[in-house]
Amino acid sequence: MLIGAVTRILQEAAEAAIVPRFRTLTKAEVFEKAPGELVTVADHEAEELIAPQLQALVDAPVVGEEAAAANPGLVRALREAPAAWAVDPLDGTANFVAGRPEWAVMAALVRDGITVAGWIVRPADDLIYEAESGAGTWRNGVRVQLEPASVPPRELRGAAYTRFMDPGTRALAKAAAAQFAEFRKGASSAGIDYARLIDGELDFVLFWRTMPWDHAPGTLLVTEAAGTVRRVDGTEYHPADESPGLLNAAGDECWHEVRRLLPG
Protein backbone atom coordinates (compact mmCIF):
# COMPACT_ATOMS: atom_id res chain seq x y z
CA MET A 1 0.00 0.00 0.00
CA LEU A 2 2.84 2.41 0.84
CA ILE A 3 4.52 1.84 -2.51
CA GLY A 4 1.46 2.76 -4.54
CA ALA A 5 0.58 5.70 -2.32
CA VAL A 6 4.00 7.30 -2.73
CA THR A 7 3.94 6.70 -6.48
CA ARG A 8 0.65 8.56 -6.70
CA ILE A 9 2.00 11.45 -4.64
CA LEU A 10 4.99 11.84 -6.95
CA GLN A 11 2.87 11.53 -10.09
CA GLU A 12 0.31 14.05 -8.90
CA ALA A 13 2.98 16.56 -7.87
CA ALA A 14 4.59 16.19 -11.28
CA GLU A 15 1.27 16.68 -13.07
CA ALA A 16 0.46 19.76 -11.00
CA ALA A 17 3.81 21.55 -10.78
CA ILE A 18 6.27 20.15 -13.32
CA VAL A 19 4.65 18.80 -16.49
CA PRO A 20 2.73 22.02 -17.29
CA ARG A 21 6.04 23.91 -17.27
CA PHE A 22 7.99 21.47 -19.42
CA ARG A 23 9.24 23.47 -22.42
CA THR A 24 7.18 26.48 -21.29
CA LEU A 25 9.45 27.91 -18.56
CA THR A 26 10.09 31.63 -18.60
CA LYS A 27 13.41 33.19 -17.62
CA ALA A 28 11.77 34.50 -14.46
CA GLU A 29 11.06 30.91 -13.36
CA VAL A 30 14.69 29.74 -13.50
CA PHE A 31 17.34 30.60 -10.91
CA GLU A 32 20.93 29.70 -10.13
CA LYS A 33 21.18 28.51 -6.53
CA ALA A 34 24.93 27.89 -6.84
CA PRO A 35 27.38 28.36 -9.73
CA GLY A 36 26.19 26.06 -12.50
CA GLU A 37 23.33 24.69 -10.37
CA LEU A 38 19.87 25.57 -11.67
CA VAL A 39 16.59 25.47 -9.80
CA THR A 40 13.12 26.38 -11.01
CA VAL A 41 9.75 27.23 -9.58
CA ALA A 42 8.75 23.68 -10.57
CA ASP A 43 11.39 22.21 -8.22
CA HIS A 44 10.12 24.26 -5.29
CA GLU A 45 6.42 23.79 -5.92
CA ALA A 46 6.75 20.04 -6.43
CA GLU A 47 8.69 19.62 -3.20
CA GLU A 48 6.11 21.70 -1.33
CA LEU A 49 3.40 19.38 -2.61
CA ILE A 50 5.29 16.16 -1.94
CA ALA A 51 6.73 16.76 1.55
CA PRO A 52 3.54 17.06 3.66
CA GLN A 53 1.90 14.13 1.90
CA LEU A 54 4.86 11.84 2.58
CA GLN A 55 4.82 12.91 6.23
CA ALA A 56 1.14 11.99 6.37
CA LEU A 57 2.08 8.46 5.28
CA VAL A 58 5.10 8.06 7.56
CA ASP A 59 5.58 10.78 10.14
CA ALA A 60 9.29 11.40 9.58
CA PRO A 61 11.53 14.30 8.54
CA VAL A 62 11.59 15.04 4.82
CA VAL A 63 15.07 15.73 3.48
CA GLY A 64 14.17 17.46 0.23
CA GLU A 65 16.86 18.79 -2.07
CA GLU A 66 15.51 22.33 -2.00
CA ALA A 67 14.78 22.36 1.73
CA ALA A 68 18.28 21.04 2.40
CA ALA A 69 19.77 23.77 0.20
CA ALA A 70 18.23 26.30 2.58
CA ASN A 71 18.97 24.25 5.72
CA PRO A 72 21.88 21.79 5.23
CA GLY A 73 21.39 20.44 8.76
CA LEU A 74 18.29 18.58 7.56
CA VAL A 75 20.52 15.87 6.09
CA ARG A 76 21.39 14.69 9.62
CA ALA A 77 17.92 13.15 9.86
CA LEU A 78 19.02 10.44 7.44
CA ARG A 79 21.62 9.38 10.00
CA GLU A 80 19.96 10.23 13.29
CA ALA A 81 16.20 9.83 12.90
CA PRO A 82 14.52 6.39 13.14
CA ALA A 83 12.98 7.12 9.76
CA ALA A 84 13.36 9.86 7.16
CA TRP A 85 12.34 10.64 3.61
CA ALA A 86 14.77 11.72 0.89
CA VAL A 87 13.17 13.62 -1.98
CA ASP A 88 14.42 15.01 -5.26
CA PRO A 89 11.39 16.85 -6.65
CA LEU A 90 12.99 17.39 -10.07
CA ASP A 91 16.14 15.44 -10.79
CA GLY A 92 17.82 16.68 -13.96
CA THR A 93 16.78 20.30 -13.66
CA ALA A 94 19.28 21.46 -16.30
CA ASN A 95 17.74 19.00 -18.77
CA PHE A 96 14.27 20.18 -17.84
CA VAL A 97 15.24 23.82 -18.40
CA ALA A 98 16.77 22.91 -21.77
CA GLY A 99 13.61 21.10 -22.85
CA ARG A 100 15.19 17.65 -22.79
CA PRO A 101 13.09 14.75 -21.43
CA GLU A 102 15.85 13.29 -19.21
CA TRP A 103 14.42 14.24 -15.81
CA ALA A 104 12.65 12.44 -13.00
CA VAL A 105 10.88 12.79 -9.66
CA MET A 106 12.43 10.65 -6.93
CA ALA A 107 11.90 9.64 -3.33
CA ALA A 108 13.25 7.14 -0.83
CA LEU A 109 12.28 6.00 2.65
CA VAL A 110 15.24 5.50 4.98
CA ARG A 111 14.99 3.61 8.27
CA ASP A 112 17.89 3.50 10.73
CA GLY A 113 20.21 4.82 8.03
CA ILE A 114 19.26 2.18 5.43
CA THR A 115 17.07 2.74 2.37
CA VAL A 116 14.03 0.46 2.56
CA ALA A 117 11.94 1.80 -0.34
CA GLY A 118 12.70 3.83 -3.45
CA TRP A 119 10.87 5.45 -6.35
CA ILE A 120 11.86 6.99 -9.69
CA VAL A 121 9.01 8.48 -11.70
CA ARG A 122 9.71 9.68 -15.26
CA PRO A 123 6.60 11.53 -16.49
CA ALA A 124 8.10 12.47 -19.87
CA ASP A 125 8.54 8.75 -20.68
CA ASP A 126 5.56 7.28 -18.78
CA LEU A 127 7.93 5.13 -16.72
CA ILE A 128 7.68 4.30 -13.02
CA TYR A 129 10.34 2.39 -11.07
CA GLU A 130 9.55 1.12 -7.57
CA ALA A 131 11.45 -0.99 -5.08
CA GLU A 132 10.99 -2.19 -1.53
CA SER A 133 13.67 -3.95 0.46
CA GLY A 134 13.34 -7.67 -0.07
CA ALA A 135 10.50 -7.33 -2.60
CA GLY A 136 12.38 -6.66 -5.84
CA THR A 137 12.34 -3.86 -8.39
CA TRP A 138 9.33 -3.12 -10.55
CA ARG A 139 8.98 -1.06 -13.74
CA ASN A 140 5.41 -0.09 -14.60
CA GLY A 141 4.18 -3.00 -12.48
CA VAL A 142 6.44 -5.64 -14.03
CA ARG A 143 9.33 -7.06 -12.04
CA VAL A 144 12.74 -6.43 -13.58
CA GLN A 145 16.10 -8.04 -12.88
CA LEU A 146 19.55 -7.21 -14.17
CA GLU A 147 21.36 -9.74 -16.28
CA PRO A 148 24.88 -10.08 -14.83
CA ALA A 149 27.42 -8.49 -17.17
CA SER A 150 30.28 -10.99 -17.14
CA VAL A 151 31.84 -9.99 -20.43
CA PRO A 152 35.34 -8.51 -20.91
CA PRO A 153 35.68 -4.77 -20.23
CA ARG A 154 35.97 -4.05 -23.95
CA GLU A 155 32.33 -5.17 -24.29
CA LEU A 156 30.95 -3.18 -21.35
CA ARG A 157 28.87 -0.03 -21.72
CA GLY A 158 28.99 2.58 -19.02
CA ALA A 159 28.67 6.18 -17.96
CA ALA A 160 30.66 8.36 -15.59
CA TYR A 161 29.90 11.65 -13.88
CA THR A 162 33.24 13.45 -13.95
CA ARG A 163 32.20 17.05 -13.31
CA PHE A 164 32.96 17.02 -9.60
CA MET A 165 36.18 15.01 -9.84
CA ASP A 166 39.48 16.74 -9.22
CA PRO A 167 41.46 17.28 -12.44
CA GLY A 168 43.77 14.32 -11.85
CA THR A 169 40.93 11.86 -11.21
CA ARG A 170 39.02 13.22 -14.20
CA ALA A 171 42.03 12.67 -16.44
CA LEU A 172 42.34 9.07 -15.23
CA ALA A 173 38.65 8.45 -15.91
CA LYS A 174 38.94 9.81 -19.43
CA ALA A 175 42.04 7.70 -20.05
CA ALA A 176 40.11 4.57 -19.05
CA ALA A 177 37.37 5.27 -21.60
CA ALA A 178 39.14 3.46 -24.43
CA GLN A 179 39.03 0.17 -22.50
CA PHE A 180 35.23 -0.07 -22.70
CA ALA A 181 32.83 -0.59 -25.58
CA GLU A 182 31.04 2.60 -24.52
CA PHE A 183 31.96 5.19 -21.92
CA ARG A 184 29.55 8.09 -22.11
CA LYS A 185 29.14 11.08 -19.86
CA GLY A 186 26.28 10.95 -17.41
CA ALA A 187 22.80 12.06 -18.46
CA SER A 188 22.87 14.94 -15.94
CA SER A 189 20.17 13.06 -14.06
CA ALA A 190 20.91 10.25 -11.63
CA GLY A 191 17.36 9.00 -12.00
CA ILE A 192 17.79 8.57 -15.74
CA ASP A 193 21.10 6.70 -15.47
CA TYR A 194 19.91 4.43 -12.65
CA ALA A 195 16.95 3.54 -14.87
CA ARG A 196 19.23 2.93 -17.86
CA LEU A 197 21.29 0.52 -15.78
CA ILE A 198 18.16 -1.31 -14.59
CA ASP A 199 16.83 -1.45 -18.16
CA GLY A 200 20.08 -2.97 -19.47
CA GLU A 201 21.10 0.04 -21.56
CA LEU A 202 24.21 0.41 -19.39
CA ASP A 203 26.37 -2.11 -17.55
CA PHE A 204 27.78 0.37 -15.04
CA VAL A 205 27.49 3.95 -13.83
CA LEU A 206 30.11 5.81 -11.83
CA PHE A 207 28.83 8.78 -9.84
CA TRP A 208 31.16 11.13 -8.00
CA ARG A 209 29.03 13.55 -6.01
CA THR A 210 26.63 11.53 -3.85
CA MET A 211 23.85 13.68 -2.44
CA PRO A 212 21.28 11.45 -0.71
CA TRP A 213 18.24 12.56 -2.72
CA ASP A 214 20.11 11.65 -5.91
CA HIS A 215 21.17 8.17 -4.84
CA ALA A 216 19.04 6.73 -2.03
CA PRO A 217 16.22 5.79 -4.46
CA GLY A 218 18.34 4.45 -7.31
CA THR A 219 20.75 2.40 -5.26
CA LEU A 220 17.91 0.38 -3.76
CA LEU A 221 16.35 -0.09 -7.18
CA VAL A 222 19.65 -1.44 -8.50
CA THR A 223 20.33 -3.79 -5.58
CA GLU A 224 16.76 -5.12 -5.56
CA ALA A 225 17.20 -5.84 -9.27
CA ALA A 226 20.28 -7.99 -8.43
CA GLY A 227 22.81 -5.29 -9.27
CA THR A 228 25.83 -4.29 -7.20
CA VAL A 229 26.31 -0.93 -5.48
CA ARG A 230 29.41 0.02 -3.54
CA ARG A 231 31.57 3.00 -2.81
CA VAL A 232 34.69 3.03 -4.95
CA ASP A 233 36.67 1.87 -1.90
CA GLY A 234 34.48 -1.25 -1.79
CA THR A 235 32.43 -0.23 1.25
CA GLU A 236 28.65 -0.29 1.56
CA TYR A 237 26.62 2.73 0.50
CA HIS A 238 24.70 4.66 3.16
CA PRO A 239 22.45 7.60 2.23
CA ALA A 240 23.82 9.96 4.89
CA ASP A 241 27.40 9.48 3.65
CA GLU A 242 28.17 12.08 0.99
CA SER A 243 31.78 11.06 0.39
CA PRO A 244 32.69 10.96 -3.32
CA GLY A 245 32.67 7.93 -5.54
CA LEU A 246 29.81 5.47 -6.01
CA LEU A 247 29.94 2.66 -8.55
CA ASN A 248 26.80 0.79 -9.67
CA ALA A 249 27.12 -2.27 -11.89
CA ALA A 250 25.28 -5.25 -13.33
CA GLY A 251 26.57 -7.75 -10.77
CA ASP A 252 29.69 -8.35 -8.71
CA GLU A 253 31.93 -9.52 -11.54
CA CYS A 254 31.15 -6.45 -13.58
CA TRP A 255 31.68 -4.20 -10.56
CA HIS A 256 35.15 -5.59 -9.88
CA GLU A 257 36.20 -5.44 -13.54
CA VAL A 258 35.12 -1.83 -13.88
CA ARG A 259 36.57 -0.80 -10.54
CA ARG A 260 39.93 -2.27 -11.55
CA LEU A 261 40.09 0.10 -14.51
CA LEU A 262 38.51 3.25 -13.15
CA PRO A 263 40.04 5.77 -10.70
CA GLY A 264 38.91 5.99 -7.13
Note down, in words, how this protein is organized.
This protein has two domains: 2-144, Fructose-1,6-Bisphosphatase, subunit A, domain 1 (Fructose-1,6-Bisphosphatase, Chain A, domain 1); 153-261, 3-Layer(aba) Sandwich (D-Maltodextrin-Binding Protein, domain 2). Helix 1 (2-18) runs antiparallel to helix 2 (41-57) and helix 7 packs parallel to helix 8. The strands form three sheets. It has a seven-stranded mixed β-sheet, sandwiched between helices. The protein has helices at residues 2-18, 41-57, 65-70, 77-80, 93-98, 167-176, 190-198, 212-224, 252-261; strands at residues 30-34, 37-40, 62-64, 83-91, 104-111, 114-122, 127-132, 136-139, 142-144, 157-160, 182-185, 204-207, 228-231, 246-249. By secondary structure, it is α+β, with helices and mostly antiparallel strands. Helices cover 35% and strands 27% of the residues. The protein contains nine helices and 14 strands.
Helix and strand topology:
Blueprint: H1 2-18, E1 30-34, E2 37-40, H2 41-57, E3 62-64, H3 65-70, H4 77-80, E4 83-91, H5 93-98, E5 104-111, E6 114-122, E7 127-132, E8 136-139, E9 142-144, E10 157-160, H6 167-176, E11 182-185, H7 190-198, E12 204-207, H8 212-224, E13 228-231, E14 246-249, H9 252-261
Parallel strand pairs: 3-4, 10-11, 10-12
Antiparallel strand pairs: 1-2, 4-5, 5-6, 6-7, 7-8, 8-9, 12-14, 13-14
Helix pairs in contact: 1-2, 7-8
